[in-house]
Amino acid sequence: xxxxxxxxxxxxxxxxxxxxTCVKCSDAxxxxxxxxxxxxxxxREATARASALSEAFKKIVSDAPSGIPHPDSTQRIHSASxxxxxxxxxxxxxxxxxxxxxxxxxxPDVYKQGT
Length: 115
Hints:
Blueprint: E1 2-3, E2 10-11, E3 14-15, E4 19-20, H1 23-63, H2 71-104
Antiparallel strand pairs: 1-2, 3-4
């Protein structure tokens, strides 16, 4: 009987056809793949939101005909700027979560099972 490549327990299960892996370690690997996929998707979505809001902000600013925007335009610029700042913050948060997971194996609390 082969020994698990991760925990050295005896197993007859093989992952990928050639790596002996016990059920417990196989489940742990599946969970890691799932967390990585979720964190990567979150980063993609946050980046897309920040990009879309950046384009919207550029459009609002360019719509001011002269260098002196109308008072209503000023509020639109402030609102767009605030939304863009929040989106960029969320994008960096998603990036940091993925980086922490890939570099150090840290899983954000919201993705831990049983919490």
